[in-house]
Structures are given as structure tokens and as C-alpha cells.
Amino acid sequence: MDIDAWVWWLIGAVGLGIPLVLTAMPEFGMFAAGAVAGAVVAALGGGVVAQVLVFVVVSVALIAVVRPYAARQRAASPGAATGIDALKGRQAVVLERVDSRGGRIKLAGEVWSARTYDESAAFEPGQQVDVVEIDGATAVVM
Length: 142
Fold this sequence. Notes:
This protein is of the alpha+beta class and 142 residues long. The protein has helices at residues 5-23, 26-43, 48-76, and strands spanning 91-99, 102-107, 110-116, 128-135, 138-141. It starts with a helix and ends with a strand.
């Protein structure tokens, strides 16, 4: 059984894709893309030298262009706060008196139960408060 060269290139691309998935190293994906480009050249009838040359050029070009761009993007955008971490430090409006025993606030468009950070403090409806932390389903405010 004689297997065409483009099939070998696709097998190589899959082989390079496996460590990409297992190690999460994007370089393997770039080499896999180079192998797919080599498969295209082989399917179009290009010789072995052309196939290897296209594989090398595409792989090196992807590494030279995509890696620095991805590194810049990763460094430029620090991890965004999500979930309850995104609520810390936000302002809320008191809906029902909030003291150390409880109360209600409107935080990020939702009604939350709340209590004060300082046990001697109390906030009346309409006042602005700052969320210090989230304790379970309760916002701790000051």
C-alpha cells in the first residue's frame, strides 16, 4: 500500500497536535499548521524540497509573528476580575437600612443582602456604600 505524501504530512500535523493539547504549548500548534501547509503543497504536486521548505517557512513565520504578538497581548491585559472579585470595591445604593445585623443594597443591578464592616456603623436608604468583600451571599459594606 502506497500512501501519498500529503497523508504523511497530515499524520505529522495530528502528531504535533497531540502534545499541543497535552502540554498547552502553542508552538506545537504552529508546527502543526506548518505540516498542514506542507500537506497542501504535496497535494498540489509539489516536490519534497518544496514541501519541507513550505513547512519550515510557515512554522518559523508563525512562531516569529504569533508568539511575540500573543506575549504582548498577555502582558497588556492583566487578568480581569470576575465573579465576586469583580464586585469588591464597587459602590452600591442602600435599599433597606444596613447595620451589623443586615440590610439590603442594590449592587451591579441586583439586590443583595448586606451588613456593615464596622459593627457600630449604619447606613440609611439612599446612601452610597462601598463593597469591601463578599461573604457568602452577603456584601460587607462601609
